């Protein structure tokens, strides 16, 4: 018996990385009986001789779309142009990542195509003030690529973001041997063509990196109204000073979060997205 991590799942087979070697395994019927579906990123016990998975360790977290488990951090790639920088979309990604207790890092791609960098620098300042690490990435800019590469060490990382923003391009620049397929932007939709077909963990700089097909759903199905503030670091920090416990920072009086927005400590755009997401969650229809 040995232990390892699932780095790829295809057609009922699981590639397990253990001690630098990869073993192809199948799951036993016990997984079906217990309704356990092994995921990429799972830590497993397996029989290297018979080629069977024996057990799956308890997960620290998991994503449904894309299906990957035990993620330490998410590098969220958002483009400066083509498609245009979208702070609302970025905030949706950040909420979903924060809700899973995954550390987010923001990479703004396609900097070389920006006519004026002032607006992007303003966004960078907003997110850095909120407590996020922001990296500006340009093709061929070694400093940014080195900074991203260093993040991978000893971590399991997902690369997330809207299709066409340059996720595969970024990974190819860092690790050319991957030769991941990249896609063009659909001019009619402003979206990229999906090029990543499945989730696979690649070994890069002492860590494991998933090039995912992007989040196929950006719905807040598993985020409650009460938990939403925890997914905004600047809201989370100021919420402790609200007069009323359970304050949702919307219509409540003596709210420290609203006061922080008024005095400029919290960016107005970020707060507006918080309120928009809050109302979306409050108005969603219950599922049975």
Automatic annotation (TrEMBL):
Residue span, EngC GTPase domain: 69-216
Tell me the keywords, alphabetical order. Cytoplasm, GTP-binding, Hydrolase, Metal-binding, Nucleotide-binding, Ribosome biogenesis, RNA-binding, rRNA-binding, Zinc
The EC designation for this entry is 3.6.1.-
How is this protein organized at the quaternary level?
Monomer. Associates with 30S ribosomal subunit, binds 16S rRNA.
Query: What name has this protein been given in UniProt?
Result: Small ribosomal subunit biogenesis GTPase RsgA
Q: Which family does it belong to?
A: Belongs to the TRAFAC class YlqF/YawG GTPase family. RsgA subfamily.
What lineage is on file?
Bacteria, Bacillati, Bacillota, Bacilli, Bacillales
Location in the cell reads: Cytoplasm
Cofactor note as given: Binds 1 zinc ion per subunit.
Cytoplasm: is it a keyword of this entry?
yes
What's a BP term from Gene Ontology annotated to this protein? ribosomal small subunit biogenesis
Which InterPro entries is this protein grouped with?
G_CP_dom, NA-bd_OB-fold, P-loop_NTPase, Ribosome_biogen_GTPase_RsgA, RsgA_GTPase_dom, RsgA_N
Q: Which NCBIfam families match?
A: ribosome small subunit-dependent GTPase A (TIGR00157)
């Amino acid at each position: 018996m040995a232990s390892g991590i699932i780095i790829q799942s295809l057609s009922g087979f699981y590639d397990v990385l253990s001690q630098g070697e990869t073993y192809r395994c199948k799951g036993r019927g016990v997984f079906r009986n217990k309704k356990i579906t092994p995921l990429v990123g799972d830590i497993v016990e397996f029989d290297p001789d018979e080629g069977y998975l024996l057990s799956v360790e308890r997960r620290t977290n998991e994503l449904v779309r894309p299906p990957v488990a035990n993620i330490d951090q998410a590098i969220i790639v958002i483009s400066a142009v083509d498609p245009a920088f979208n702070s609302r979309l970025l905030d949706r990604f950040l909420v979903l990542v924060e809700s899973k207790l995954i550390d987010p890092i923001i990479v703004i791609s396609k900097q070389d195509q920006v006519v004026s960098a002032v607006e992007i620098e303003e966004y960078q300042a907003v997110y850095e003030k909120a407590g996020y690490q922001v990296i500006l990435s340009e093709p061929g800019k070694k400093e940014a690529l080195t900074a991203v590469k260093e993040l991978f060490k000893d971590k399991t990382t997902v690369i997330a973001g809207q299709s066409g923003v340059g996720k595969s391009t970024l990974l190819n620049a860092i690790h050319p041997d991957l030769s991941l397929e990249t896609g063009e932007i659909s001019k009619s939709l402003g979206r990229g063509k999906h090029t990543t077909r499945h989730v696979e963990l690649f070994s890069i700089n002492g860590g494991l990196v998933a090039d995912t097909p992007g989040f196929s759903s950006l719905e807040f199905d598993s985020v409650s109204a009460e938990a939403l503030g925890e997914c905004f670091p600047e809201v989370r920090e100021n919420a402790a000073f609200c007069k009323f416990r359970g304050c949702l920072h919307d219509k409540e009086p003596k709210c420290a979060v609203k006061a922080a927005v008024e005095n400029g400590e919290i960016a107005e755009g970020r707060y507006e997205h918080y309120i928009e997401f809050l109302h979306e969650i409050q108005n969603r229809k219950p599922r049975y």
